[in-house]
Each structure stands twice: as C-alpha cells, then as structure tokens.
Amino acid sequence: MQQSPIEVPYVDAIPSDYDGVMGVPITFLDKFNPQQFEIVGWARGRDEYEIHPTKRYVNPKQHKPDGKVSNGGKVNTGPNILRKNKPSKTFYTADNADGYLEQLYMRILIRHRTENGMR
Q: Which of 13-17, 19-23, 74-78 shows the lowest per-residue confidence on average (mean pLDDT)?
C-alpha cells in the first residue's frame, strides 16, 4: 500500500522508518546521500515541472500581518499547510479551504532507498 507524502520541517526530523515520499527543506541537499535517498522531484506547482499540486485553491486571498488583503494566486504555485488557527504571519484563505493556508518554502521530494532499489 502506498503511503501519503508527508512534510518534514527540518532535515534532522527525517524518519528512518517511513517508506513514502517526504517533502524536506532545501538544506537536505547539504546532507544528501544518493545511496540512502532518491530525489523524486520538488514541490513547486508549475506545469513545466513533474510534480503538480493535488489541490487548486478557489478565489485565494493573501492576508498580510498589517491587515492588507490581496490576490493570493501564489498559493497555487507551491506547498502549503492548512492550519486551524490563524497565523500571525502572512497567510492565505480560499473558498475551498477549511482553515488558514501557510505557504512553505520549496521542498525537495525524497524517499528512502534500499540495497535492491525502493523499499
């Protein structure tokens, strides 16, 4: 059974027992070991890349800490986390999101390797 991709907030938090795809920070490249991990792609939602968003947000709005609201189309171009509580920094809302969206920095998508290929 294929596991859902997970978000890993920092390199030292990469689980050793997870067989699915993991989104890790770009700092992962400093410690990349090709015998241990396979790079599957990167999380940026543009059509010219292999990885595409699994969800498109409808009528997105960007909310700045100073209260300014503007078009939030940028939320559809990268990885996001859905929060239940309103963040104190810039966040996004959308008609089809039940909560507050926080856009992450770009993530490298990886998975563990084994001696015989994928686990």
A: 74-78
